[in-house]
Description:
The complex is a heterodimer. By secondary structure, chain A is α/β, with parallel strands linked by helices.
Amino acid sequence: MTAYRAAPRTPALLLAAFAAAVSLPELALTQEHDRDTASPIKHVIVIIGENRSFDHVYATYAPRSGQRISNLLSRGIINADGTPGRNHEASAQRAATDTHRYAISPPRAYAYANVPPPGTHDAPSAPSDKKPAPFATLAAARAAEHDLADEYYPLLLSGATGLPANVIDTRIANYENLGAGAFQLTPSVKYDDYAASPVHRFYQMWQQSDCSVEHATAANPSGCRNDLFAWVEVSAGAGSNGKPQPLPVTNISTGEGSTALEFYNVQQGDAPYLKQLADRYTLSDNMHQSVQGGTGANHIMFGYADAIWYSDGHGHATKPPANQIENPDPMPGTDNWYDQDGYSGGSYSACADPGQPGVGSVVSYLQSLPRPINPRCEPGHYYLLNNSNPAFNADGSPSSRYAAITIPPSSVRHIGDVLMQANISFGYFGGDWAIYQSDPAAANPYDAYCSICNPFQYASDIMTNPALRQAHIHDTDNLNQDLADENLPAVSIVKPSMFVDGHPASSKLDLFEGFIKKIIDELQAHPRLRGDTAIFITFDEGGGYYDSGYIQPLDFFGDGPRIPLLIVSPYSEGGFVNHGYADHVSIIKFIERNWRLKPITARSRDNFPNPKTRRDNPYVPVNTPALSDLWDAFHFSAAGRVAR
Amino acid sequence: MQPVWQQHRSLSSTAAVAALLLGDFGCARPGSGFEGQWQFSWQGRIGTEQAMLSLQPSGQLLNGSYRSARGSVPLSGSVHDHEVSFVVNFSGPPPYRVEFSGTLHGNRIAGQAQPQDVNGRAFAGHGGEVSPDYYSWTALRVGARD
């Protein structure tokens, strides 16, 4: 049984000494505030998968009678069988040109008659024990992964592409004649197959969204056209890392092609468990990734309702090394090949300074909107926009001794601080945390722990305090045991290992289904716990997959495209579709409202009001920037149930 | 248990003492350039793991140990002229095996590491980030200058 406690933050030293002196189970007594809630919900579980946009998963989802939804099918972009619909042009992609200075809405070059053939990028070629691939044996798969519903384990062995990396994915039917926009990935590629991962980095995603006030309409006041997904994939890809562009430049140079335009079809059997949950519970069709970009920045925004920044490790903003400063301006002589950006290149921007590379184009756009948006950037602060190793190893030692690209310790206040102050118990449950604790470099090939996903691993106050680390960071094995023991903390944040997080190329969506099914099955077996628990199932970001939904600019960092959100609880049953504008911070707002907590800081996004919308368009807040607290996704009373 | 940094420091100290006792200051021993203590580093998915290698060739056979913050485990393999290959069986959990191969250049060995009998995908991290087929390693003879 895991010991949870709601630890008062002060006096920290006294607490640490106390924790060291007594066994942790004794500290679990301070949980009485857990049940002091504004709703019948006493436990929140947040499960965060990886890299799938809303339309990528729910493109053809048709809700029950009386409910409406905004997706590729409802917009007429596709038909129920996945073929182009009467309004397919709405997803049409265009090529642009950007040869001098980064622009989030560069000028048009030409329209695609057919989007470039998708690539295999780094999707695994064959099952192999020696090269990156699915597991070769079930025994190895079971040894490595503990968190799947039993019937899903064989899926850890299947789905290799049979193709080399970085070539055209010839499994896809008609790959040279896919049309100008979104296309169905299946059935020529099976739902259980691995496939490439599109680019999903900060400046690339702003550019893919193609936002300009010149495109704004009443229904789309932010003017984001979402029509540069394919072009950014083939021109910039996942970044230069400061290196020259490989020649010759072709549509497959980055290995991706137009992977971003792929979608699944739930009406033809894809994502069956995610469809089943939507049929039974509540699905949001207006949930968004909170940062334009990737895994790290979005998990940070979830944990802090804000971005964090480079510092001296003691709370003072400083300038990062030159090669870690983003420069998305094109290299001379190239078309959109970023000067400094990538997983070993740029990660930070000083976004209070419009003269910094890339910054001016985003800020100009935000300030050109009818209701100008504050970038919320402090002078002299270099904000983390893309993945960087968190400051600490599992034992609280500095991770910079192992990893070169590491953000210094953060002093920014996070949701854990709010919960600790209020004596509300919480836990972060990371897949493979137990292995990672003795393997900070992740040299162990079974170690699929995602260090950049744990928002608390960036934070000095948690990571330098052994008692707090032990109390609040756990392996997913602990979650499964705690469900069995009916001993959940008030707030549980759950992150699968990278084997089963659903990330394309390194995982599959069906494996993520198997992960969440195990948790839900366990919860169903405990009616008392089920009765007061809400599970929020979402993704960190859309992974670079195309989405047709409205994007509300909130600040310099985002929002980004829509992602799925399912709300599973006895108070969200009925197959409803919730349209309130939401992002990851909306879940934080729900937690704060439920436990009567104040926002994390005076500037964090959880201060934004709930959206007000016009009757004819529930998707677009007229009081922007605004974020739903998702309260209206529940029916906490009989009257509420009727109203819905 | 000691903090990781203390373990590294004590490992380094032990290695330095061993090097002094052996008089091993970068001179290759007759018959085998591999024998002795080596400061070893190899790339994992997140970062670089440091370890101390003890190599004891006997003809073309190789035995020794791999010591890191995660403990000490035996290694075995073979040497042939300037080429070396060896396997380390890590205790995990779960147990796993990594094969190292490399080439000697004076007081330095450089080569590649590849996990065996497990899914190497775990090394890759998130798609699109880092996904080499193998990982590099280097070793510097204790007492020698890089």
